[in-house]
Design a protein that fits this description.
Residues 17-88 form the S-adenosylmethionine-dependent methyltransferase Rv2258c-like winged HTH domain. This protein is an alpha/beta fold. The chain contains 16 helices and 9 strands. It has helices at 2-23, 26-33, 42-49, 53-65, 84-88, 92-104, 107-114, 130-142, 146-154, 158-164, 177-185, 198-204, 251-261, 279-286, 288-304, 319-329; strands spanning 70-71, 77-78, 167-171, 190-195, 218-222, 236-242, 262-273, 333-339, 346-352. β3, α11 (177-185) and β4 (190-195) form a beta-alpha-beta unit. α2 packs across α3.
Length: 353
């Protein structure tokens, strides 16, 4: 066990070094100016990246010892050709390493939440940089698949209905990535993004189409998902929740509101972290990725979803069984569970009123 704990500590150090390199574009800089035949000293990397040589040297030393960078006896560095893409382009593991530091910021207060007489949970505002990184994470994992993969997977003629023109709501839209993609691709439909976080909505409202023009079929609203505007009753043909259900303190109130605002013939599509609702099954199914899923829940999703005496405290690994039970209690039945291999670690729930 001591060896295992040592390995974990080393991995933690290397993960933080990867985070630093990604945020400062050190990997990209190194890839641009070096190769196996033309390794470089840290001084050249630092000059190109606009950083201090001594810090860059220690960063290089750390990652070379961790077998992430290569080094020769002259202490010159390069990235092996087979590793360049993984270290210089946005991808799930690289972004997740960068994302980890944003959910670790309030760890001292999180520790207090564990104590019996401590706080119920943490306010979303304590994760000051998480929203921005989450949007980058979503862009990396979702942008290419929302329209061509997810929409057809929902079925029920949703693609054709979007093309013809329907009214769509995105509950917990955050910075608006998903709803923007849909609004641009389906100009005949009307879209509303709703989120309780004013900062996220302010960012969303600045979004433009890919050609730089303004949206005419997209608006954003600051509102509580558990208490949406009364005027929304029986309004929407399609309601999305992109990973926004489990983070809520009362996802049951949210789903009851979703049931109210969707039309009688409408469709609700919910993407969420995939799990079985049994940790033993999850460990056997996902292997080491299960630890990442539960760990992410422990560090962020559970605290923000527990910050009230009446919170349900779901966490992101509440799993299929508990999710379906909650949705049933909120009025949704005959729920379809559809795998989404194009969204890492995610599953799609599709339901009617």
């Amino acid at each position: 066990m001591q060896d295992r704990l040592t390995d974990l500590a080393i991995s933690n150090v290397l993960s933080n070094a990867v985070n630093i390199g990604n945020r400062l574009n050190l990997f990209k800089t190194l890839a641009e100016i070096s190769s196996p035949k033309n390794p470089v000293l840290p001084q050249k990397i630092a000059e190109k990246a606009g950083c201090k040589e001594r810090y860059v040297r220690e960063w290089c030393n750390t990652l070379a010892c961790g077998r992430i960078l290569d080094v020769n006896e002259k202490e010159e560095f390069w990235i092996a050709q087979e590793n360049v893409e993984s270290l210089t382009t946005d991808n799930f593991p690289l972004i997740f390493n960068t994302m980890l530091s944003t959910i670790l910021k309030p760890i001292d207060t999180l520790i207090e939440c564990f104590k019996k007489d401590g706080p119920y949970g943490l306010d979303y505002s304590m994760y000051s940089d998480f929203e921005e990184m989450q949007q980058k994470f979503a862009k990396t994992t979702s942008e290419k698949h929302v329209v061509p993969s997810l929409v057809p997977a929902i079925g029920h003629g949703v693609k054709e209905r979007l093309e013809a023109g329907i009214k769509v709501l995105d509950v917990g839209c955050g910075g608006g990535l998903h709803i923007r993609l849909l609004a641009e691709h389906f100009p005949n439909s009307q879209f509303i993004g709703l989120d309780i976080t004013e900062k996220a909505i302010a960012v969303a409202r600045l979004m433009k189409k890919s050609d730089g023009s303004d949206f005419e079929n997209l608006e954003f609203v600051v509102a509580d998902a558990g208490d949406m505007p009364k005027s929304y009753t029986d309004t929407f043909d399609l309601v999305f929740l992109f990973g926004s259900c489990h983070d809520q303190m009362r996802p049951d109130l949210c789903m009851k509101e979703v049931h109210r605002v969707v039309k009688s013939d409408g469709i609700v599509a919910v993407t969420d972290v995939d799990g079985s609702s049994n940790v033993h099954t999850d460990r056997e199914t996902y292997g080491k990725m299960a630890a990442m899923k539960y760990g992410g829940s422990m560090l962020h999703c559970l605290p923000v979803g527990s910050n009230s005496p009446d919170a349900l405290c779901c966490g992101s690994m509440w799993g299929r069984k508990r999710a379906v039970e909650l949705m049933n209690k909120c009025g949704f039945h005959d729920i379809e569970i559809i795998p989404t291999d194009y969204f890492p670690g995610t599953v799609l729930y599709v339901m009617k009123k």
